[in-house]
Design goal:
Length: 253
């Protein structure tokens, strides 16, 4: 495994990713809000049915290994452009993007803005609508003003979300985390859902059965999005049921 980087803003800030060498089209993993890619996905990429593919675990700006510039906007578009910079530096085209939660929203924007980079989207419980209802993936971050979140809300949220999510959220810059959450809540125009439905690439939406039905799932399927429900899994499908999640990526489910 190697660590690589690319500049993503005028100040020279770096987006970083870890990479497994391999053959075939690259598979690019993008994490959700307050997370990091390798802890959520490296065990999936190492499974026998998926091993051997070139795999990139990208940490979004402000998260994980990547830089956290104070002047960056951290909107969905900003994150998507940073991921594009990483893929350009890595000379990746026509990738399979495997993206979780907020990362799925970023991946939709990426596919819309840079169609040359994306051949397949696998979105795990991606946020498709602005100001989504509270779910297992909610944190309460957007209930704070930015300065108040930095001063006291960040510590409160770390206590609230539990040890698993807090383990990666501790690596996120508080301002970056707040701005990212606000950008996710604002969404895009047209919405992430409308953009996803209009894309022409192969699209798969993965839902954990414990999270309930996919809102608007019938409309997604009518637009050509394959909706897959994974049993015995909640929001973190790749952690709750790795074999079933890997089967979806491998095209066996």
């Amino acid at each position: 495994m190697t660590i690589r980087n690319a500049r993503f803003d005028a100040e020279g800030s770096l987006i970083r990713w870890t990479e497994f060498e391999g053959e075939g089209p690259a598979r690019v993993y993008v994490h959700g809000l307050g997370a990091a890619s390798a802890p959520y996905h490296a065990h999936i990429a190492a499974r026998s049915e998926l091993a051997g593919r070139r795999s990139l675990f990208v940490d979004l700006p402000g998260h994980g290994l990547s830089d956290r510039p104070s002047g960056f906007g951290y909107t969905l578009e900003d994150h998507a452009d940073a991921v594009a910079a990483a893929l350009d530096e890595a000379e990746v085209r026509d990738a399979e993007i495997v993206a979780h939660s907020m990362g799925g929203s970023v991946a939709i924007v990426l596919a819309h803005r840079r169609a040359d980079l994306v051949a397949r989207l696998v979105l795990t419980e991606a946020n498709l609508d602005p100001y989504p209802p509270r779910t297992a993936g909610s944190s309460g971050i957007v209930g704070y003003e930015e300065d108040a979140f930095v001063a006291e809300g960040y510590a409160r949220v770390l206590e609230k979300v539990g040890p698993a999510w807090a383990a990666t959220m501790r690596l996120v810059d508080p301002r970056a985390l707040h701005r990212s959450a606000m950008g996710l809540a604002r969404g895009t125009r047209p919405t992430m859902r409308a953009t996803l439905m209009a894309l022409s690439v192969e699209r798969v939406f993965v839902q954990g059965a414990l999270s309930g039905d996919v809102p608007g799932g019938d409309d997604l399927e009518a637009s050509g999005v394959r909706v897959v429900t994974v049993p015995d899994a909640g929001h973190n499908v790749m952690l709750d049921n790795p074999p079933a999640f890997a089967a979806v990526l491998a095209g066996r489910s």
